[in-house]
Amino acid sequence: MKFLCYISMGLLLLGCQDVKKPEKPENLIPEDTMVQLLADIYMGNAARSIDNKTIRKKGVKIDSFLFAKYKVDSLQFAKSNAYYATDLNTYTRIFQKIEQQLETLKEQENERKLELNAERKKARDSANATVQEEVEKEIDTSETEGVLIEPATSQQ
Hints:
This protein is mainly α. It has five helices and no strands. Residues 116-156 are annotated as: Disordered.
């Protein structure tokens, strides 16, 4: 019975709390720009997870670069992100757009790799064909030269 009383009291306290939604910032980043920025941030995070040592060694500040690219600052980004995060439907829509954009980039990269591999294979096949032709010419020449040599006669 005490357990049920504690659960009820906890639910009552949680239900009575005042959750404040952040106000719309004056310099709110537009939704489309936010999608682009977040997609670039996620790609930057992926780059860090692959080769953070080189990124740090070269002194690359990915976040600072991206904020400069989109002409926003970190505070503006944080406020805009917090504002969008309070509306689950909007935030879900933003992340669906990000996912679509990243999938499109992935498909484009895969197509580029396939084209590059096809070009390499074509160049390799062309080089192999040239070598094969040279070998065949050499074989043809040696057979012709052998025919021109007179047979040896025995001396007695």
